[in-house]
Amino acid sequence: MRLINIAVSWFLWVQLTLCFTNEALQLTELSLASDNNIIELLDGDLSMVDGPRDYYTVLIFTSSDIAHGCQPCTEAYEIISRVSKSWFADHAESNYLAFINIDLINQPNSKIFQILGLQTIPHIWLIPPNSEVEYGRGPYKILEEPHLDFRVPKGSKDEQVLEFAQFISENTQRNIMVRDEEPIMKFLKTFLITFSVIIIIKKRGPSIITSSKKKTVTGIFFICLLLMSIGGYQFTVQQGVPFIAKNDKGGIIFVSGGRHYQFGIEVVVSAITYASLASALLFLIYIGKYEITDKSIIKSEIAKAGLVLLSAGIEYLLYSCLTSIILRKDPGYPYGFTKLF
Q1: Nearest to 56 by CA among 179, 145, 135
Q2: What CA–CA distance (Å, rounded) separates 132 from 130?
Q3: Domain-located, residue 199
Q4: Which domain holds residue 16?
Q5: What is the pLDDT of residues 11-51, one digit of tens each?
Q6: Fewer CB within 10 Å: N-end or C-end of the chain?
């Protein structure tokens, strides 16, 4: 008898799970077929998310009606669109999140606004999964469930997009890599600007640059660009962080303690550290291959060995400096050398 009860319970659990999965799958299919992967609610009926759910739901209360003149609604929709497209680029097969836009321009949706008594828009809700509720509660019962309300922060569009992406990531425990809105145009723009800067520097820069080969100038420029990228320049631009910050005693903070934050000066510190580390390594290789002759600057093997040891010591200190930066941000980092600060 006990085995029969277990078998029946297991069968019912499987059926319920399949039901959850099918509903989530249908929402994913609707999302993929929709503009910006956002489902547009046209009839004011939220029955599609009625009953138990094993997925998150984002409800967007907006109005694109010109008569309402809701510019924040347009801006909020653009922010959500970038994140929704990035989410489905990364997690389309997870069936774990659906974006539903409830636009007041569709008259049947006005009933939802009346039920909630909304006087201002936009509103952005994140409703978590709920397996405890039953089917057939009605098309508006989901509006009574607990939810998280995202408020668009002040800042640039990129900052707002990153904030919303982080909000979704933290609550769903899924990372989102935000895509550029027009990556091809951004690439062309960056390429043209970079190319123009190289030409201007080569033709109108100092004599030491104009007299150098084009390959040399281009190489140095791209090395500097690479060092800035590695140092986190793009992050500081997107976040709009200050270049220099000071502690309570008025001293400059060169390295912040947070894993997900840094000041502008850290780009310079990191770039100099990487450049010095690479230069020291190249010098060590050069000294190691250096051949002592009658005309060479280094006259003895002892002097050469001393330079090798000195270079190795500098390399160790520079690498310790690099790992000290990492340890400052992540004390649990297991591959640190000597902690210098």
Answers
A1: 145
A2: 6
A3: no
A4: 2-172
A5: 444 344 444 467 888 899 999 998 899 999 999 999 888 88
A6: N
